[in-house]
Design goal:
Blueprint: H1 3-15, H2 20-27, E1 33-34, E2 39-40, H3 44-48, E3 54-55, H4 61-73, E4 78-81, H5 85-94, E5 99-101, E6 106-109, E7 121-126, H6 132-144, E8 148-152, H7 160-164, H8 167-172, E9 175-180, H9 186-191, E10 198-202, H10 214-221, E11 228-230, H11 236-251
Parallel strand pairs: 3-4, 7-8, 7-9, 9-10, 10-11
Antiparallel strand pairs: 1-2, 4-6, 5-6
Helix pairs in contact: 4-5, 6-11
Amino acid sequence: MDRARLRELLTGVREGTVDVEQALLALRVLPFEDLGFARVDHHRSIRKGFPEVIFGQGKTARQIAEIAQRLVAHGQHALITRLDELTAQEVRVLLPNLRYHPQGHLGAVGDPPVPPERQGTILVVSAGTADLLVAEEAAISAELMGNRVERLYDVGVAGLHRLLSSVEILYAATVLIVVAGMEGALPSVVAGLVDKPVVAVPTSVGYGASFKGLAALLAMLNSCAAGVTVVNIDNGFGAAAAATLINRLTSNREPPTQN
């Protein structure tokens, strides 16, 4: 159940095309549905603007499939994160319509929302090719949440001219997700160039002193550039969720009037 379907249901009750018993039946599983091993939050889309997302790591294929089935049965799109290829194959046996994105270890079932016409663009920027798994988790998650997404990859600070050759793309974005490992300097550089929100994602890429992404995380938290928000290590999905809310809020503003 999302806002549009709930509005349609309530309008039907008001206009007499849907009787009260039908409406009660449709609302019966709000705000959640108890499956025994999970309580599926069908109310999430109404509160947040996108449905509950399934964290695949640690779940069995059957658990993932059953949660996804219940989401789709109630008119929602199911996004599955941290889904490795072997588990995805097992899930597809139960859910033949599963779409798997190996670039970001993501699965999807059902139809994702279509971006509104006035909605801005989320730009995902990565420092290096080694960061692409996390960058693609962010990019594909953002797409499946109903955003227009562009990508600018392998533009890290070791070759800053690569980034500076694409500043027009940076300026055109509504919100930027910047993914980097090693020393984690790229979000600060990008935030120093643009007047848009920057969501920084540290990755666990790097040698021993990177401490599996901790060095990049601390560098991003200590950024001297204004407007940098930092999510957890390797959390591309979290960055996509934050960027989606920012993009939606920005896009819902009324355009300026002309005198």
